[in-house]
Design brief:
By secondary structure, the protein is α/β, with parallel strands linked by helices. The protein is built from 12 helices and 10 strands. About 50% of the residues are buried. Its cofactor is FAD.
């Protein structure tokens, strides 16, 4: 059994987000708090698929005080035209402060995924998360590198889509209301034949080029493949515009005028003492493994032999967390890295 508590919190610009605290039934969490940060167009439940052992349970039973952050990209929160800059400056620092206030801990650790990773890493590199001493990042962080076909797609199609729709939403595969939505669903059905799950196929259309993009089908059990129908929803065009600029530049690019964020975050040393752990599947076609390797090398140049990189054989993008064998293949690596001394 796990104990759960909900903690609403306000980002620094007033946007209402929420945290969920999960602990083992005995209530003891001697290893302290760790925050899990989801990607774009999903929610914190993405860390709890219908598998025998989820990452949340795994960490809680190992002795961690697990916190699930729903930042402004969460489909459980009101939709908005958010950017990674907003999340980095407003959401993640406020979430960390809330966790510190509730637990009384002096430091926390983090496991971050995809656009939760890019925005959280932006925040850390800008010096906005001094309380975080270990960060485990999956898939992409400061250097988004994608396949050439996907690069052409995001650069060329984003301006057109921005004229037609304010967002992309895999839920249109279940219910589409406008001509644009119906046309996009038709396009997905015409070009994707890898499975019979239309939401699964629409996520591949949304996030890259592949059949599928976000996981390898053989890594998912049937229950999880069905479960994802309800775990992917709206992603604003504002995000795709920022990612398009970042992909062209080969590094994350700021799109706001927030003084706390440099426009080229990877052009100067990161303002964090946290130990960084970079993981990614060797079959990741959403963001190529080179993405994480480049950021690992960026941090390794600043502090050699302190950070880590793990290439996960046979895994793609999100199946690192939701795969049916992730508890055997991946979670022990994450736990071992979280437990390593930071000095």
């Amino acid at each position: 059994m796990l104990m759960r508590e909900c903690f609403p919190f306000y980002a620094s610009d007033g946007f209402e987000c929420k945290l969920e605290r999960v602990r083992a039934a005995h209530g003891a969490s001697p290893l302290g708090p760790v925050v899990l940060v989801h990607g774009a167009g999903v929610r914190s439940k993405i860390f709890e698929p219908p598998v025998e052992m989820t990452l949340v349970r795994y960490l809680a039973e190992a002795g961690y005080d697990v916190w699930l952050e729903n930042w402004r990209a969460s489909i459980d929160l009101p939709p908005s035209q958010w950017t990674l800059d907003q999340a980095a400056v407003y959401d993640h620092p406020a979430a960390v402060r809330k966790i510190i206030d509730v637990t009384g801990a002096s430091t926390i650790k983090a496991v971050i995924h995809c656009q939760g990773s890019t925005s959280f890493m932006l925040s850390a590199a800008a010096g906005l998360l001094p309380q975080v001493d270990v960060i485990v990042s999956n898939a992409v962080s400061l250097h988004p590198i994608i396949p050439n076909v996907s690069k052409f797609k995001i650069i060329c199609c984003t301006p057109l889509l921005g004229c037609l729709t304010p967002d992309l939403n895999p839920q249109w595969a279940i219910q589409s209301n406008t001509y644009v939505q119906k046309a996009l669903v038709g396009l997905v059905r015409l070009t994707h034949h890898e499975c019979d799950n239309d939401v699964c196929k629409f996520t591949s259309f949304t996030y890259g080029t592949g059949f599928p993009v976000l996981w390898r089908h053989e890594n998912l059990n049937e229950a999880t493949h069905e479960w994802i129908r309800h775990e992917f929803a709206s992603v604003p065009i504002s995000f795709f515009k920022q990612m398009s600029r970042s992909v062209r530049a080969g590094q994350l690019m700021g799109v706001s005028h927030l003084n706390t964020l440099p426009k080229h975050i990877a052009a100067q040393p990161a303002k964090t003492q946290a130990r960084m752990v970079f993981i990614t599947g060797d079959k990741n076609v959403c963001f190529l493994p080179e993405s994480q390797m480049r950021t690992y090398l960026f941090f390794n140049e600043q502090r050699r032999n302190f950070h880590s990189f793990h290439l996960l054989a046979g895994y793609g993008h999100l199946d690192v967390f939701i795969g049916q064998r992730a508890a055997v293949d991946v979670f022990p690596i994450i736990l071992d890295e979280l437990n390593r001394p930071t000095h």
